[in-house]
Amino acid sequence: MAKIIEISGLSLGFQRDEQQHTVLENLHLGVERGEFLAIVGPSGVGKSTLLRVVVGLTQAFAGDVKVLADKTPNRRPIAMVFQEARLLPWRKVLRNIMLGLEGLDLDAATRRERAERALSLVGLAHCAERWPHELSGGQRQRIGLARALAVEPELLLMDEPFAALDAITRQGLQDELLRIWAETKKSILFVTHDIDEAAYLADRVILLGGSPAHVTREFSIRTPRPRARDGAALAAAVGEIRAGLSESYAYRVASSA
Amino acid sequence: MTKTKTLALGAVGLVSLLLLWEGFARSGAVQSTLIPAPSAVPAAWMSEWDLGFWQDMVAASFSHYAVGLLIGSFLGVCIGVAVALMPRVNASQAWIVRIVRPIPPLAWIPFAIIWFGVSETAAAFIISIGIFWINYFAALTAVQSVDKDLIEVARAFGHHSAIGRLFKVILPAASPGILGGLRTGLGQGWMTVIAAELFGIPGIGQRMIEASGLLATDVVVLYMLTIGALYGITDYIFMLAQNRLLAWQK
Ligand SMILES: Nc1ncnc2c1ncn2[C@@H]1O[C@H](COP(=O)(O)OP(=O)(O)O)[C@@H](O)[C@H]1O
Ligand SMILES: [Mg+2]
User: Fold this and answer.
1) First vs last C-alpha separation in chain B
2) Of A137, A231, B91, B150, which residue is most buried, by most CB within 10 angstroms?
3) Mutation probe of ligand 1 site: the residue of A27, A48, A51, A191 with most atoms within 8 A of C-beta
4) Residue B63 belongs to what domain range?
5) Residue B210: inside a domain, yes or no?
6) Which residues 6+ apart lie within 8 Å of B181 measured at CB?
7) Is residue B228 assigned to a domain?
8) Residue B25 belongs to a domain
9) What pLDDT is attached to residue A19?
10) What residues in B contact A135, CB-CB < 8 Å?
11) What are the sequence ranges of the domains in chain A?
């Protein structure tokens, strides 16, 4: 299978007091085309920082992020969904979805059409003319997803997109995401700290751990979809990941002591 | 409370104030020139109107006000936004502003007169100073407190240029603060317009000084109420526009 993104030898972190603080070091990671890849790690390990580098919001210290998506003037290769929906409160829903389309080579009618299509894809066509504050948390998150889908990216980055939602809404959105993924055949890089969520959604789960962090373990989840949330297959996968996580946590504590 | 009820209560309050005032003025407790009755005001208005003074004075004051308001607001907002966007300039302006800003607009009167003479320009200058500072600070703080996460969203969705960020995120996000500054300036302007004219620049303020010299206190009250009404009208119109522009807020 061909890769959509290839990360090699990546080191990154943040700058404070003129000093570089390394968060992730020597990270290697590839996402296959059409793959649903979940990244799991404790909070503060550097998951968001990683996505920020991939989408171009910060610079890596060293290493290479190769995006192998096709460059076309009317699409963006990568789009991001944030944990808090981060809608622009002064724009109605449809105009929010158009944000990423505004710099593309599209006429106004096409922009509108693409935004409407993305909105239908997340099942909120009736909310086009609402203000963001008139939506529930789950709806806002779906608009954030629609905004990313509208630019027709090949790779979708999702940073704990359902973490702030209640369990029932979260389950609904997970299933919806799987439906959209199956329909649009995108590659998804999905960050979460919820092992159950990772195991339910992903083809492959990668654990980040250590300090500075790197990929500590990797699991393939071959259970066919639709997956039973409380089925034995998933429970086994979750157990395996959990064991891997405590291992790498022990490693993290040992290496930082 | 319903809209009509709110309106009705407002009217009741206003009428009661007028009645109390009228009663007190007529009770003979004080001389009528010291506290003129509100019922004397319409007559004063008619005579000022017939002489053409009222129209001229209102037009003159309004033009000082409008010019000062436009210049002060425009410069205040533009410079405030620009400084907020430039961290170095922002750091270097802090102490200049701390010292220059507390100078009340009226303290500029001597210079206004030296530079511009006793003229319309001098009045507009004085008015614009107070309005400038209000808008400067409102715009500065509004832009500084724009949610960085939203700026990041714009960048993540391809708006990398400074202009793109300014128009897509910064200005709309800062608009409640900026509009709030404009509205405060609108009121502040009417307060300084009168003071600026007390020094002989033709307008409502000058006419009030003249009238008080003649103990025509009913005329003074007429112009006081005129100012109040002008402020009320401009503020109301601005509020309607503001509500429309900020319909997106909760
Ligand atoms: N700009 C910054 N200033 C200070 N610390 C930062 C900055 N960016 C990231 N960090 C730190 O880097 C680490 C990784 O952050 P993050 O990527 O947000 O973690 P995660 O998303 O896995 O919870 C955290 O310890 C965080 O405090
Ligand atoms: Mg995070």
Assistant:
1) 19
2) B150
3) A48
4) 55-249
5) yes
6) B76, B77, B80, B134, B135, B137, B138, B139, B142
7) yes
8) no
9) 86
10) none
11) 3-69+157-256, 86-153
pLDDT tier at A252, thresholds 50, 70, 90? low
Q: Which of A21, A22, A23, A53, when mutated, tests ligand 1's pocket best, judged by the most ligand atoms within 8 Å of its CB?
A: A23
Topology at the third CATH level for domain A3-69+157-256:
Rossmann fold (3.40.50)
The interface predicted TM-score (ipTM) is 0.92
How close, in Å, is residue B161 to chain A by CA atoms? Answer: 11
- The model's pLDDT over B145-185, given as tens digits with 9 standing for 90+, comes to 999 999 999 999 999 999 999 999 999 999 999 999 999 99
Q: CA A16, A20, A24 angle in degrees (round to 5)?
A: 115
What's the confidence (pLDDT) of residue A250?
A: 66
Q: Using pLDDT thresholds of 50, 70 and 90, give the confidence band for residue B66.
A: very high
> DSSP secondary-structure letter at A107?
-
- Determine, for residues A86 and B169 on separate chains, whether the beta-carbon distance falls below 8 Å: no
Quick check: bond before A226 cis, omega within 30? Answer: yes
Tokens of B42: 């319409």
B176: preceding bond cis by omega (within 30 degrees): no
- Give this prediction's pTM: 0.89
Q: What is the pLDDT of residue B195?
A: 87
Residue that wins the pLDDT comparison between B196 and A127 = A127
Domain count, chain B: 1
Residues in contact with A153: Cβ distance below 8 Å, sequence separation at least 6, in sequence order: A69, A75, A76, A77, A78, A79, A186
Report the amino acid identity of residue A162.
F
Query: Which pair of tokens denotes residue A107?
Result: 């006429």
- Whether the CB-CB separation of B205 and B197 falls below 8 Å is answered with yes
- Tell me the two tokens of residue B172: 């709309």
pLDDT of B187-227, one tens digit each? 999 989 988 888 888 999 999 999 999 989 999 999 999 99
Q: Is residue B4 part of a domain?
A: no
Query: Do residues B179 and B101 touch, judged by C-beta distance below 8 A?
Result: no
